[in-house]
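Predict the 3D structure for this chain.
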Amino acid sequence: MSNNEDFNWEKYETKGFGEGYTKAERAEMEKLYDETLTEITEKEVIKGTVVGINDKDVIVNIGFKSDGLVPLNEFRDLEELKIGDQVELFIEEQENSLGQLVLSRKKAKMVRAWQEIEDALEFDNVIEGLVKRRTKGGLIVDIYGVEAFLPGSQIDVKPIRDFDIYVGKKMEVKVVKINHANDNVVVSHKVLIEKDLEKQKAEILNNLEKGQVLEGVIKNMTNFGVFIDLGGVDGLLHITDISWGRINHPEEVLNLDDKVQIVVLDFDDDKKRISLGMKQLTPHPWDSLSATLDVGSKVKGKIVNVADYGAFLELAPGVEGLIHVSEMSWSQHLRNPADFVKVGDEIEAVVLTLDKDDRKMSLGIKQLTEDPWTKKEMGDKYAIGTKHKGIVRNLTNFGLFLELEEGIDGLVHVSDLSWTKKIKHPSEFVKVSDELDVVVLELDLDNRRLALGHKQLEENPWDTFESVFPVGSLHKCSIISKNDKGAVLELPYGLEGFATTKNLEKEDGSQAEAGESLDFRVVEFSKDDKRIVLSHTASFKEEAMPKSKKSGTKKKTGAPDAPGEKSTLGDLDALSALKEKMDEDSKK
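Done. Predicted structure below.
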């Protein structure tokens, strides 16, 4: 029997799993086992293989000592997920409290998305995103699961007014800014368009010629015109080149985003300013005017503009005629055209001048009515001596113009306003727009002249004054003013007289001064010139009277009995009524 101490008991003992190996064999086995396992690091993205799927989880083998579980809802974007599929996963923990490997596909996608976004910014890559919704100032675009902001100004090269049309649609963008502090990404779609437009722009500018017809899109509208996008190049369509007719704003005939045909009118040397036209693509309306249209023709149209000097009547879009204010009424006094017409009025007119070559036309509306000066009844209506009432329309140094009716004016000379007052300017007597009673003094139908008088409505008081102030009669007068030639005197009844310097000598040899009231004798009376010359010296010196006048004048009714007597109102019954009337006029 062999020695028990040399017996290998371990060889015959019952062994558990993994037992029965020598130290050397165990070391060898551990080495082989370790080589089959993947070395992993937490917080990194790796690839794994789906090995099982149940109602809640997806079992993934990443080559680690244990498989990982990932919630099934993280794979909801993969409708046909199956065993054997390769997926990317984020290692959150190698081993949690339950000893399980914790993986996340959602975080793996986020990490991978940020890597793609950073690469897109660094390498200027174009990426595709889905517009999720609109927000203040722009759109929110989903790129790889990250919400990026697309500013409204970066959507297109032209202004965008309705952001909602992009929601739910895919759009190519470029990353222009990343803010890692708040995970903010800004993208642009405009930069992609601009690159394409640069090629188009260069091609358009190189081939640009005057008279070239192009197609463009209305990009912007202002009150002075429209900016049109020609494909990366903007041109201005001025409001006056939109239509042959007159328009107040482009929006009356055009709309934003409309595609329009235009013609190149002009551009500068650098081709930075391009002038466009639209109306030039259609014939000019003047070329289609009726051949029967001529001077004297009656036309109809609409007032499109009213200026200080007249109004413009549109006969057809692009065909206008000027109605000067002087052709609106037979009246000689120009008024504001707005007194006769306003914008939008549809009226008739008569063609006065017509120049089809220069495309100019003048019209009149007063010609639709008879000239009042040519009416048959004018001669009787305004016969000499007839009385009328008119409105003062204009004042001049020599008189005033009175309108008796529309188109009929007459002149009242300043000398025909008053018998007694010396009026230097009509403004001393009346003002514009006052009513004035007159009598016709002269009528000249051929030359359209009418002379009127106001003072002639009353009898000439100088006929009476001739008997009140005969040469040699004595009157109490006040000296109003003095100058080198003599003095102006205030006579009874509001009249003025004049005395030369030598006739102002008083009895004591001194000179009479302004403000004094003295006796004066009439030495000259002129009814036609309405002039009375007097002398204080002749009141006490008989030899001071002119020799031709010393014998006196023919005695008239109401005159003083002798040269030395003073005339008074009580002595002159003929003047009592006159004085009363003059007093009434003075009060008025």
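The helical segments are 9-12, 23-36, 105-123, 190-207, 378-381, 462-468, 547-550, 573-587.
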